[in-house]
Amino acid sequence: MQDSVETRKHGAVAVVSLNRADVRNAVDAETARKLYDAFVAFDADPDARVAVFHGAHGHFCAGWDLQAGARMAQDSLLGGDPFAGLDFAPDDYAADATGPLGPMGPSRLMMSKPVIAAVSGAAVAGGMELALWCDMRVMEQDAYFGVYCRRFGVPLIDGGTVRLPRLIGMGHAMDLILTGRKVEAAEALQMGLCNRVVPTGEALRAAIALAEQLAGFPQRTMLADRASAYAQWNLAMPQALHQEWQRGKACIGDALEGAARFTAGAGRHGA
């Protein structure tokens, strides 16, 4: 029997795959914990520079497993707490990927390295929230997003109401959040919901190629710039510029080395 979450390495790229074909990779409590553990392990692996988050069998993730949810509802009627262990406070966040467990698994982790979503088929409800958690999204031309949980009264509790407005703006976000409508690849690209659209069946390959490109850059400066972009959200302009300078200043040695390589002929004409 295959595991519901599988991790394999492609050099410096870690591919984390959901593998629950019978429910289009919907996530139950056990799978959420395994996803969380897989990404914590990636973040701690010094040999893994970028992760690709992938759904096997033609779908990224159909969201929270509603069949498991029905069983949770029955348990709650019997006196159990269906969300035991999921409450958290803002102070629970750490500077590394040891933050609190989310209902879908890694959605509350603050990763120190990039994660790219390879989106095929359905990425809906909590599955869409997992894709939003990633730094970038590579989407197949017949894949789709949607807050499909709207029709069942299931709330967005894995960052959807936070990350979606920050990514595509409040107007687009309200349209998607309130209506729960289907968003196909062309529209997702137009509104900034995905970064690349590729032919059907090519998302994983394209995402790995993109991850390998990121893994080939000088890492310290790329990660400093990534961290600055995330940190600036809650800061006034002077503080945001100051933290950018502090992070960049620590990488000046790398910048001087890069300047020397350029002067010697490396990287000309966009190479």
What would the keywords be for this entry?
about 270 residues, alpha/beta, 10 helices, 9 strands
- Helix residue percentage: 40-55%
- What distance lies between the first and last C-alpha atoms, to the nearest angstrom? 45 Å
Spatial order of strands in the largest sheet? 1-2-3-4-6-9
What value does the Rg take, in angstroms? 19 Å
Counted by DSSP, the helix tally is: 10
Task: Describe, in plain words, how this protein is organized in 3D.
With 271 residues, the chain is of the alpha/beta class. Helix content is 42%, strand content 14%. The strands form two sheets. A six-stranded mixed sheet has the order 1-2-3-4-6-9, sandwiched between helices. A three-stranded mixed sheet has the order 5-7-8. Strand 1 and strand 2 (13-18) form a beta hairpin. The protein starts with a strand and ends in an 8-residue tail after the last helix.
Quick structural gist:
The protein has 271 residues and is of the alpha/beta class. It is built from ten helices and nine strands.
What are the SSEs and their pairings?
Elements: E1 5-10, E2 13-18, H1 29-44, E3 50-55, H2 66-77, E4 115-119, E5 122-124, H3 126-133, E6 136-140, E7 144-146, H4 160-168, H5 170-179, E8 183-184, H6 185-191, E9 196-198, H7 203-215, H8 219-231, H9 237-249, H10 252-263
Parallel strand pairs: 2-3, 3-4, 4-6, 5-7, 6-9
Antiparallel strand pairs: 1-2, 7-8
Helix pairs in contact: 3-4, 4-5, 8-9
